[in-house]
Amino acid sequence: MVKRQVFFSFHFSNDSTRAGQIRNMGVVDNSSTFSDNDWEEVREKTDDKIKRWIDNQLNNRSCLVLLIGEETANRKWINYEINKAIELNKGIVGIYIHNLKNLKGQQSNKGNNPFEYVTVKGEKSSKFITTFDSKYKISTNVYNDIKSNIPGLIENAILNKPSTW
């Protein structure tokens, strides 16, 4: 299977450690993401500069992978990234990451589905976008489950996106 270039979206302050685990799995293209230092630099810019950065990142990717933690849903930049990916007709998939441990060895509570908060033509985008939630509860098992499923989830999101959002 081809390694796809994807844009990882996540709630930085809560889930950067968990997102780092996903990004470092090596199952998507190495250019598919940004370093934490890049994001720190972007967060300190104006809204217009952040939008341009997100737009440029998404333009060069085939899929938005939304890593869903406890407080991901209905955040300003998460909603913007979902809407922009829809506008650009990108594949979109959500992956729950709450059961991965952070640096302190803690798991978190499952968050709401972010696609419930973004509408497409009057319908919740959750109607069109798949989310993956590992059936496992132990962090190492969750990690392995995500690692084995993420290539197929990305491919499915790209190949089965609505022809017109």
From TrEMBL:
InterPro entries: ThsB__TIR-like_domain, ThsB_TIR-like_sf. Residues 7-101 form the Thoeris protein ThsB TIR-like domain. SUPFAM superfamilies: Hypothetical protein MTH538. Gene3D superfamilies: Hypothetical protein MTH538 (3.40.50.9200). This is TIR domain-containing protein.
